[in-house]
Amino acid sequence: MKRPVIITIICVVLALLWLLNLVSVAASIGVVGAGRFAWIVATNLVAGLSIIGLWQMQLWGPILYLGGQLIGIAAWLTFPMAGAEDAFPLWALFVAPAIYAVCVLPFWRQFKPLQVRGS
Strand, coil or helix: what is 112? Predict the structure, then answer.
Protein backbone atom coordinates (compact mmCIF):
# COMPACT_ATOMS: atom_id res chain seq x y z
CA MET A 1 0.00 0.00 0.00
CA LYS A 2 1.34 3.38 -0.96
CA ARG A 3 1.44 6.15 1.64
CA PRO A 4 -0.62 9.22 0.65
CA VAL A 5 1.47 12.29 -0.20
CA ILE A 6 -0.11 14.39 2.58
CA ILE A 7 0.86 11.73 5.15
CA THR A 8 4.46 11.78 3.83
CA ILE A 9 4.54 15.58 4.09
CA ILE A 10 3.15 15.49 7.63
CA CYS A 11 5.74 12.89 8.64
CA VAL A 12 8.63 14.92 7.23
CA VAL A 13 7.45 18.16 8.84
CA LEU A 14 6.80 16.45 12.19
CA ALA A 15 10.19 14.71 12.08
CA LEU A 16 11.96 18.02 11.42
CA LEU A 17 10.05 19.72 14.23
CA TRP A 18 10.81 16.76 16.48
CA LEU A 19 14.54 17.06 15.76
CA LEU A 20 14.44 20.79 16.50
CA ASN A 21 12.59 20.03 19.71
CA LEU A 22 15.34 17.59 20.73
CA VAL A 23 17.78 20.51 20.54
CA SER A 24 15.58 22.48 22.95
CA VAL A 25 15.40 19.44 25.23
CA ALA A 26 19.19 19.30 25.34
CA ALA A 27 19.29 23.03 26.05
CA SER A 28 16.83 22.66 28.93
CA ILE A 29 19.07 20.29 30.92
CA GLY A 30 19.69 22.00 34.22
CA VAL A 31 17.37 24.90 33.39
CA VAL A 32 14.06 23.27 34.27
CA GLY A 33 13.27 21.09 37.25
CA ALA A 34 13.77 17.34 37.14
CA GLY A 35 10.02 16.64 36.96
CA ARG A 36 9.43 18.97 34.02
CA PHE A 37 12.54 17.63 32.27
CA ALA A 38 11.28 14.04 32.67
CA TRP A 39 7.93 15.11 31.23
CA ILE A 40 9.64 16.78 28.26
CA VAL A 41 11.70 13.66 27.53
CA ALA A 42 8.67 11.36 27.85
CA THR A 43 6.52 13.47 25.54
CA ASN A 44 9.31 13.60 22.98
CA LEU A 45 9.60 9.82 23.03
CA VAL A 46 5.85 9.49 22.45
CA ALA A 47 6.02 12.03 19.62
CA GLY A 48 8.90 10.21 17.96
CA LEU A 49 7.12 6.87 18.18
CA SER A 50 3.92 8.34 16.77
CA ILE A 51 5.81 9.74 13.78
CA ILE A 52 7.26 6.28 13.11
CA GLY A 53 3.79 4.73 13.36
CA LEU A 54 2.34 7.31 10.99
CA TRP A 55 5.18 6.75 8.49
CA GLN A 56 4.52 3.01 8.56
CA MET A 57 0.78 3.62 8.15
CA GLN A 58 0.12 1.82 11.44
CA LEU A 59 -3.15 2.74 13.14
CA TRP A 60 -1.41 3.15 16.49
CA GLY A 61 0.60 6.10 15.05
CA PRO A 62 -2.26 8.61 14.76
CA ILE A 63 -3.89 7.26 17.93
CA LEU A 64 -0.64 7.77 19.85
CA TYR A 65 -0.15 11.25 18.40
CA LEU A 66 -3.67 12.49 19.10
CA GLY A 67 -3.72 10.84 22.54
CA GLY A 68 -0.38 12.43 23.37
CA GLN A 69 -1.67 15.81 22.23
CA LEU A 70 -4.77 15.50 24.42
CA ILE A 71 -2.65 14.55 27.43
CA GLY A 72 -0.31 17.45 26.67
CA ILE A 73 -3.21 19.90 26.50
CA ALA A 74 -4.58 18.57 29.81
CA ALA A 75 -1.14 18.92 31.41
CA TRP A 76 -0.74 22.46 30.05
CA LEU A 77 -4.12 23.44 31.47
CA THR A 78 -3.45 21.71 34.80
CA PHE A 79 0.15 22.87 35.31
CA PRO A 80 0.63 26.04 33.25
CA MET A 81 4.10 27.55 33.07
CA ALA A 82 4.29 31.02 34.63
CA GLY A 83 4.00 33.70 31.96
CA ALA A 84 3.47 31.22 29.14
CA GLU A 85 -0.16 32.23 28.64
CA ASP A 86 1.00 35.66 27.45
CA ALA A 87 3.32 34.21 24.81
CA PHE A 88 1.19 31.21 23.86
CA PRO A 89 -2.60 31.69 23.71
CA LEU A 90 -4.86 28.82 24.74
CA TRP A 91 -6.42 28.38 21.29
CA ALA A 92 -2.95 27.69 19.83
CA LEU A 93 -2.85 24.38 21.74
CA PHE A 94 -5.55 23.04 19.45
CA VAL A 95 -4.13 24.16 16.08
CA ALA A 96 -1.60 21.34 15.48
CA PRO A 97 -3.94 18.49 16.54
CA ALA A 98 -6.74 19.97 14.41
CA ILE A 99 -4.54 20.26 11.30
CA TYR A 100 -3.23 16.74 11.91
CA ALA A 101 -6.74 15.32 12.31
CA VAL A 102 -8.07 17.06 9.18
CA CYS A 103 -5.15 15.71 7.11
CA VAL A 104 -4.92 12.18 8.58
CA LEU A 105 -8.48 11.11 9.40
CA PRO A 106 -9.64 10.90 5.74
CA PHE A 107 -7.12 8.05 5.32
CA TRP A 108 -8.15 6.21 8.50
CA ARG A 109 -9.23 3.04 6.67
CA GLN A 110 -5.88 2.79 4.88
CA PHE A 111 -3.95 2.36 8.13
CA LYS A 112 -2.90 -1.13 9.19
CA PRO A 113 -5.15 -2.18 12.08
CA LEU A 114 -4.00 -2.77 15.61
CA GLN A 115 -3.07 -6.38 16.14
CA VAL A 116 -2.81 -8.29 19.40
CA ARG A 117 -0.16 -11.00 19.41
CA GLY A 118 -1.40 -14.53 19.94
CA SER A 119 -4.78 -14.00 18.33
Answer: strand
